[in-house]
Design a protein that fits this description.
Rossmann fold, 6 helices
């Protein structure tokens, strides 16, 4: 395993896949401008999980603070993304807490329990759906990103919910953003078979089962959600960035598709999990001095 230490005001050379340990905003500053062809990521959701590490995203006091924090990070991502690059952003939603400072375990999903929960955002009511994906999408659009597609990730095997006064949620959003009006997009590589048995342009509802992972990370992308993004927005050998690397699923998919990756992860425990999954192709570990 190769370790590399860089000063905050220096930048790394992208010659091979790497994991940068640290806060996303600071870590992004060591990546050269316009060096990344595509970004595929899923930030921590607001108020849904305490990962137990200082500086984590998702436990901001207010929803606007959470949105502004992510907008700042994605503004720096815009700098490192090539002008013809694409950002794929998966983000989930949540319901207001009713100002309860905790969330009780669900009989069908005990892991959902939390001892820390933000207050109900200003302007919302108890039991309101917060609309976080679209709040973030519009904020990024206002910050200069082109919002090109809202893809509905339908989960056929979604986790059941113990609710009786609304439908159980079984979808999330995957937004496609671009930095420029014109960009690289390989539509042929991700065509799907239509009802007539012929290939057609890929539609905006993707039915993809979730994937269980036995590691310590609470939420992981399924590789079948990542693969179409890789194929449509990159070529062999390109660099793909995930600024919230977690257990490294984007890295796994990149290697399977002959792409390079740059992963940023704050939690060293998750880096260890990712390294275990990437052990056949050990990336360089970059630490910011």
């Amino acid at each position: 395993m190769e370790y590399l230490k860089v000063e905050q005001n220096n930048q790394v050379s992208l010659n091979d896949s790497m994991i940068i340990e640290g806060d996303a905003l600071h870590a992004l500053r060591v990546i050269p401008s316009e060096s990344i062809q595509s970004v595929i990521t899923s930030p921590p959701y607001w108020g849904l999980r305490d990962y137990g590490i200082s500086g984590q995203i998702g436990l901001e006091i207010s929803l606007p603070q959470f949105i502004n924090h992510l907008v700042a990070i994605f503004n720096e991502i815009k700098r490192v993304l090539r002008n013809d690059g694409i950002l794929w952003l998966n983000i989930g939603d949540g319901y207001t807490s009713g100002n309860r400072g905790y969330r009780a375990p669900d009989k069908k999903n005990p892991a959902r329990a939390m001892t820390i929960r933000p207050n109900t955002p200003e302007g919302l009511k108890p039991k309101d759906l917060q609309g976080i994906p679209w709040r973030l999408a519009f904020a990024l659009q206002d910050d200069g990103w082109y919002l090109r597609s809202d893809i509905v990730w339908n989960k056929p095997n979604a986790m059941p919910e113990s609710v009786k006064d609304r439908p159980s949620r079984s979808h999330e959003y995957l937004f496609m953003f671009t930095k420029s009006e014109k960009y690289y997009y390989d539509t042929e590589s991700i065509k799907e078979i239509g009802s007539n048995g012929k290939l057609r342009n890929r539609r905006s509802v993707w039915s993809i089962p979730t994937q269980a992972f036995s590691g310590a990370h609470f939420a992981t992308f399924p590789t079948s959600l990542i693969d179409p993004c890789i194929k449509a927005s990159t070529k062999s050998g390109d660099f793909i960035l995930d600024p919230f690397f977690g257990s490294g699923t984007v890295g796994v998919s990149c290697l399977e598709n002959n792409r390079n990756f740059v992963g940023i992860e704050l939690n060293p425990n998750y880096i260890e999990i990712a390294l275990g999954r990437l052990k056949a192709n050990e990336p360089t570990i970059v630490r910011i001095a």
